[in-house]
Amino acid sequence: MNTDHLKARMEDYARFIITLLILSVYFYLGTIITTYLTESNYETIMMGLTALSMGGAFFFTLRWKKCSQALQDQESQ
């Protein structure tokens, strides 16, 4: 892969990470609101969505790191 392609992928992964972290915060706040302010049975679903979006952010962080190392390897050669 060329460096421009790797840089573009890293930018995309960074956007995915930020978006998923923001989504996780919204899901977590939704969990708090449904748990403490109103009676609802959606706490388990909301916590699952929070964990799922955090897991996605972690996955894309690993992919970003892999691209970063590949870019450094290409630039050092």
Number of beta-strand segments:
0
Work out the helicity level: over 70%
Strand content: under 5%
Shape: rod-shaped
- Unreliable residue runs: none
Radius of gyration: 17 Å
Query: What is the number of helices?
Result: 2
Average residue-wise pLDDT: 91
Could you spell the SSE succession in H and E letters? Answer: HH
Largest sheet: none
**Structural domains: how many:** 1
Q: Ends: how far apart? A: 14 Å
Structural class: mainly alpha
Which secondary structure elements does this structure contain, and how are they paired or packed?
Blueprint: H1 3-36, H2 43-76
Helix pairs in contact: 1-2
Protein name: YrhC-like protein
Pfam family, one: YrhC
Transmembrane segments: 16-38, 44-62
Describe the structure.
Keywords: Membrane, Transmembrane, Transmembrane helix. The chain crosses the membrane at residues 16-38, 44-62. This is YrhC-like protein. With 77 residues, the chain is mainly α. It has two helices and no strands. It has one domain (3-76). Helix 1 (3-36) packs antiparallel against helix 2. The two termini are 14 Å apart.
Please describe the structure with a list of short key phrases separated by commas or semicolons.
about 80 residues; mainly alpha
Please provide a brief summary of the model.
The protein is built from two helices and no strands. The protein has one domain (3-76). With 77 residues, it is mainly alpha-helical.
